[in-house]
């Protein structure tokens, strides 16, 4: 008999079926016992009256893997309106050792460190797995939106000969006796690949030896990177980002409806045109001094409130960040070269995406590095490529875990990461 | 005027259009000059008769980025039957320095090391970019096939506290003062996630400190990993692999038709049922001694010829490899415990995929490690999870670069890798 999933039971009322999954919960009443089986699709209720079957169920602790054959019976009081009656119950492995928290309670009551220490079982809780399902759907939407617009997926090196972007926060390793570093981003590679495909994206791990222990930082996270050529300026990049975000949320709605329901979430709307303010204007709105070089978290919160109040939007672009606070490859605003063609996207008052137009002329790279007092040599393989013809281009990067945390309202990115890596955590 | 791609020119005969791309080639004849522009979609021919425009074109070396506005004219002798006449040509950047090889020739004549040293420009050659387009399409097909079958995409740590699978060939790094290693595979994590989602996959980098300099090995490659629970045995895994391969090839056909044409390739057929032979039978077919513990490359070639001759198949499963040659988490064949429920998939006489059923009982892990004289401690976080209820499960891993190399007939995996990493190469 073919196994069916719990979600298919409603289509088999009256039939004998086989299900399999984990013992999620047992409720041993006087005259009847209920066995709740959890599988990939959800929960199924099994009603046990036979004393021998009941004895078997009593010997199977929570999380034991079982197979149940029974008859599907309609019962309006059961979950999804159906239950399995007159079952036979067969374990598919030895009795499980229950984890140090109850997976059947609506919320995991264990502390986050305990959950992370026991990730293989904590992730089985419906709230934890729901966040990862939303994450998977968001990535699928990211790719679908970009595939539909002629982007090509790339895979780039995660070990590099010199540290990218800045010398700080890099992990050093021994590469066959030579010093090497874990890549902090695919920034240089995605730009070089614009010369090949014009439009590229990558989904992959990036590594930051972040010495701070915060709720927002991971030492490894999943970066959703995009780069496109033949742009007029950063606004063409912002338009692609808007389409990409809309695609991500549409795919979350389409693929992860059950996960959204589990977490009680309503997805935000992406406006047809996301409101945008220049950095200097943003400072005024946030009530910050006009000479601030960057936006503090409190400023971002004020801007988020303003965007919701004035534009009914959860999203807000801030453009024209001062050049001093952006990386050396950032393209300046030609009309106002102290400010950049770089932008941030705020979501509900927090920075979600950073992007912008990049330099595309070889001489501009040499000048930008010289102006910062940085040598060219560590960047040679990257900078040299701009001698061979690169179009005006730009791009952006979305941190997947932050995106999901903000979407789900998780207070800590570790709640939406399967096996987080940070200053303290290298296992499991 | 909106830019259009070269592939759209045929829809605009008689109209004035704007294209942009790289100067692919210039042919300066006496009375006329031809400018071939390369963009993401292919090549466009521009006919120049005006002396001033000709002078401009003469000053723009190959690989300079240009924008051309002109009238689309039908010309049966031009590529795709159209060309641009009476053009204006405007550079979008400074004149390019041409790379040390001609990108307009049908094949790149530079040696592979030269190509790899100059990857940002070498990858612009249509044969090199075609392989990467096939790669992107294959990965898209991999995901689509698995998404349709209820698999969930995961992202797992690439830095681990102890080396996985074997102590050899690992890269060591300094993790905030603690020793750590680059992950050789997501094997343990994908198994643990079967406990959460039943069916999972991951596309990500894996790292092997492979000290041999061969045409088949990279120190970083992209692994397509799959794991699924509630299997009867390895044959359920093989069935999913067959469907996944068929999905990959279907997506290559659908998305990368132009790339296949560029490389002159015909895709193999995946039989509805891929023929399978047991390891002991495989030894006989290959004419190998009955006590051989593994298949040598010559044996695999003989088996590939046999599969084509006897079954008309480019693919052949070999099942039941001796336990001694498989990793400790391999599930033995219950009827013949010296042999495993592990398999390899051969493609045209070369190993393409390794997979099998895994152990799922905690006590079996302890016994397997003890039998090999290995301590449990380095594997504790992994092995302990099996106390908490894991279903019978199995999976497989496809090396993306090897898959594409075999599909395209590339002699060296580096030919189908954008920026390879190996014993000698850490740049660009």
Summarize the structure in words:
- The structure is a homodimer of 428-residue chains.
- The first copy, chain A, is built from twelve helices and 18 strands.
- With 428 residues, chain A is of the alpha+beta class.
- The first copy, chain A, has two domains: 6-91, Nucleic acid-binding proteins (OB fold (Dihydrolipoamide Acetyltransferase, E2P)); 120-416, BirA Bifunctional Protein, domain 2 (2-Layer Sandwich).
- In chain A, helix 4 crosses helix 6 (234-255) and helix 4 packs across helix 12 (400-408).
- The two termini of chain A are 37 Å apart.
- Chains A, B: Homodimer.
- Chains A, B: It is found in: Cytoplasm.
Reconstruct the topology from this structure:
2 copies of one chain form a homodimer.
Chain A: E1 16-28, E2 33-39, E3 42-48, H1 51-58, E4 65-74, E5 82-91, H2 112-117, H3 119-122, H4 126-147, E6 152-153, E7 159-160, E8 172-175, E9 178-182, H5 187-197, E10 199-207, E11 220-229, H6 234-255, H7 257-263, E12 276-278, H8 279-285, H9 297-311, E13 315-319, E14 332-333, E15 336-340, E16 342-347, E17 350-358, H10 362-371, H11 380-383, E18 393-399, H12 400-408
Parallel strand pairs in A: 6-10, 12-13
Antiparallel strand pairs in A: 1-2, 1-4, 2-3, 4-5, 7-9, 8-9, 10-11, 11-18, 13-16, 14-15, 16-17, 17-18
Helix pairs in contact in A: 4-6, 4-7, 4-12
